[in-house]
Amino acid sequence: MIDIGIDWEAHYGSGWIKRFSAAPAFEAGASLLRGAGLLWIGRYGQGRVVGTSASNLASQMRDLGEHWRAAGLRWTATLLSERGLDGDSAYLLHKFHDRRRYQCEGAPHKHPNAARRLTQAALVMASDRLEIIRASSKRLGGTHNDADLWEDRFETMGETALGTPPHPPFSASEQQALERYAIYRTCEGLTHTAAGIIGARGEFQSGGKTEKASKPWYEITDHFTKKAKCAYEAFAHDASHDPSEHVPLMSVFDTSIPYSEFYERHYSSDAAVYGAAAVIALYVGLLLAAANDEENPLDTRNTFKKAGLDLTPVRRQRALPAADL
């Protein structure tokens, strides 16, 4: 668990915090699977039946990943109240979290093998998190042990023509690129959440206090948007697969941007606002450590200071699939 001086295992919410580490792979995997459905074309038709099945599974993965991410943030904020975090921070993190939906620009370039590559990528990424889901169920009263359900869903998709492994096989370098894509995409959504929480506080006026305070967070969001796209491009142009797949893979790149449908004014205290930002900074640090990325554009210590917190520095994680949050 996160090493900040709290006995996490003594709390119910620790299960949801563990599941946060599975959320990036499920959300990014959903995006990949949605793209796979659009690229697919069958032997006896346009691939709509199998493509729709992939899209439906993608929607389930996206919604669950979003739920785990939001719950992990909320419970972290709740438990950090032991360290002086304002209680409203959990409310703000829950209400303003990223609710983006898949979109791509232009018409997809149909390519069955590229579709299989995306499907394989999504299934591999998500399947790697099944043990995290199983382990976290112990802290959720045993009522959320859905690892077997998801294993069955992945097996069902894997047994379809779309689930047949691509040729050449999905490589380690492709998986590494997509793991980074998942991490940067999540960091993008987290920092946008912080920007929204800060920017929606009180009455908004151009050039006012809230705009100036939120602007750096929006700039950091753009930073992660670019890094996520670069990571996906590295996957799409990987030398280990057929060059004919490059254009189709890029044609279904998820261009959706972070979005919070609950964008309303609030009048929470500075402590609550920056408490929410501190939780986000904590997780961004964990995610970047998992990606072995030394470039963290956030001033994490200053964010903690504004929230009135003195947290133990985040320790480096080995890799996101094995992260023990």
Task: Describe the protein.
The chain is an all-alpha fold and 325 residues long. 58% of the residues lie in helices and 0% in strands. The protein is built from twelve helices and no strands. Helix 4 crosses helix 11 and helix 11 runs antiparallel to helix 12. The C terminus is likely disordered.
Secondary-structure-derived class: mainly alpha
Enumerate how many helices there are, as a single number. 12
Low-confidence stretches: 313-325
Taken in chain order, the helices and strands follow as HHHHHHHHHHHH
Choose one word for the global shape: globular
Characterize the main sheet.
none
**Proportion of strand residues:** under 5%
Mean pLDDT: 86
Alpha-carbon distance between the two ends: 4 Å
**What's the total count of β strands?**
0
Keywords summarizing the entry:
about 325 residues; 12 helices
Question: What's the short version?
Answer:
The chain has 325 residues and is mostly helical. Helices cover 58% and strands 0% of the residues. It is built from twelve helices and no strands.
